[in-house]
Amino acid sequence: MASRRPGGRTHGALVAGLSAFGIALGHLQAVLALYGWRLLDLAPPVEAEGMTAALGHAPTWLAPAAQGSQIALGVALLSGAWLAGRSPAERLGALAYATGVMLAVRYMALVVLIGWPETLQAVDGGFGPLGVYAIKVWVVLAVACAAVAVGLGLLIFARRSTI
Questions:
Q1: Is 116 in contact with 122 (CB distance < 8 Å)?
Q2: Alpha-carbon distance 99 to 18, whole Å?
């Protein structure tokens, strides 16, 4: 018999919903990255120096728009976690799980759409709320795997503490 949360929803349904949410956000992030790279006439891998130089010639609205989309992504993840969880531990687990799925799916979508990254050693660069960044893909995927594991652990812990 499926384990049910108070209120009747199964934990499997919660994880399935969070997975769908993370998958949708990850695909959206990949497509936004492609649009941004195309707008800046860049092709992956995008190093921090190349991003900084390209932003110097970009329309003035682009940097605030990119930062705003990253902030909106954070709000979406926080809102989804708030709605998915009932306790602080369950909300934190939902946030970690959905974020991990989103990060992993972003790279999966980029591989399917454009064949990049070709290796986990590739460097990904972008422009977020804190400015230009560059990070190896394997680091992001390691963080994504850790977030999924921690998120599931917190969801299981929260479930046991409410039974």
A1: yes
A2: 9
pTM attached to this predicted model: 0.87
Going by their DSSP bridges, the two strands 123-128 and 131-136 should be labelled as antiparallel
Could you read off the pLDDT of 93-107 as tens digits, one per residue? 999 999 999 999 999
**Displacement of CA 6 from its chain's centroid (Å):** 28
**Residue of 131, 79, 126 lying closest to 107 (CA atoms):** 126
Long-range contacts of 111-115 (CB under 8 A, 24+ apart): 113/30, 113/31, 113/34, 114/34, 114/44
Average pLDDT, the chain: 87
Q: For residue 13, how many other CB atoms are within 10 A of its CB?
A: 13
| Cα separation of the two ends of the chain | 15
What single-letter amino acid sits at 163? Answer: I
Higher pLDDT, 116 or 131: 116
d(CA 80, CA 91): 9
